[in-house]
Design brief:
The protein is mainly beta. The protein contains one helix and 18 strands.
């Protein structure tokens, strides 16, 4: 009887030790998964939900070459530029972040652009500031188990780009304001999501904006409300490299001029953007290509984008 009890005790002890070893090993794996903190510049347009952190200042310049190959009309049909015509643009954007607390940060974005057009044998070029943005972001929920990182966003678009009194000799190149609401102050709010599934990092956002009334060349104009929605995924490789694929959507309702609805003035577009990045703890970089797939009342563009992130 004593021998049986001793044998049972040995077996139970062995099973408990194995269970403890199994739990410890898997606990380490879960902890390692939780602590996986990939470093990258993120997608080009899609927001990332994590903030920069209290007292940190981050600068991210963007260098963009944008070529227009044609336009999508109000019916969504594509028309290429006439033979010999050209339309392209260089943009230098600057995005800045500052962490007020670990859960609250203020951001700003401005852009300088140079527009070039060749049309019917005539050429024009203009440079100047585009519209600028101010953002306030608050982290409502940090990523935990099945829950994604969730951040709320408030934004203000300021009309710092020229939007009226175009010089006819400039062929429209001197108009720098955003086409979605040139000249107006736009107020918006949105939600940003990020979730890790090693070796993938998923991002999504949706931002809804409300343009305010403005006079454009003497016409009282109310640009349509609009929605930006984005989805991006990053795949992390060895030695600091990562691949990026994102989709960027835009939807805007018809505008009003002097109180009357401008029929078929709505705007929408869908852009795809693959890219490759290289990063370490001190600097993060990304080279990407953007292409407008479909749209209405918008240019069909192809763009090359390079950006880098440098935290202070």
């Amino acid at each position: 009887m004593k021998k049986k009890a001793a044998l049972i005790l040995v077996i139970v002890s062995h099973l408990l030790l194995n269970q403890a070893s199994f739990s410890f090993a898997h606990g380490d794996e879960d902890k390692a998964a939780d602590e996986w903190e990939p470093v990258s510049a993120g997608p080009v347009t899609t927001w990332t939900a994590p903030l920069c952190g209290k007292g940190k200042f981050v600068v991210q310049p963007f260098f963009i070459y944008n070529r227009t190959r044609g336009t999508f009309n109000s019916a969504g049909d594509y028309n290429s530029l006439a033979k010999g015509d050209k339309k392209y643009q260089y943009q230098e954007q600057l995005f800045m972040q500052y962490g007020l607390t670990d859960r609250l940060e203020v951001d700003a974005q401005t852009v300088y652009q140079q527009n070039y057009v060749k049309q019917d044998g005539l050429s024009a070029h203009s440079g100047g500031l585009g519209d600028s943005y101010l953002f306030l972001r608050y982290c409502a929920l940090e990523e935990k188990e099945l829950f994604p990182h969730l951040t709320g966003l408030l934004q203000i678009k300021t009309p710092t780009g020229k939007y009226q009194k175009a010089n006819l000799d400039k062929l429209g190149t001197d108009l720098m304001g955003a086409g979605s609401g040139g000249g107006s102050w736009d107020y918006g709010f949105g939600i940003l999501l990020t979730k890790k599934f090693k070796p993938f990092l998923f991002h999504a956002d949706a931002i809804y904006s409300f343009p305010q009334k403005v006079k454009v060349d003497g016409v009282r104009t109310l640009h349509g409300q609009y929605l930006n929605y984005d989805f991006g995924v990053e795949y992390f490789l060895d030695k600091g490299f990562n691949l990026v694929l994102e989709f960027n959507g835009f939807l805007q309702s018809d505008k009003k001029e002097d109180g009357a609805k401008a029929v078929s003035s709505d705007v929408n577009s869908l852009i795809v953007s693959p890219g490759i990045g290289w990063s370490n703890k001190k600097i993060q970089t990304l080279l990407a290509y953007q292409r407008t797939l479909v749209g209405t009342n918008t240019d069909a563009n192809d763009s090359v984008v390079f950006t880098l992130v440098y935290p202070f």
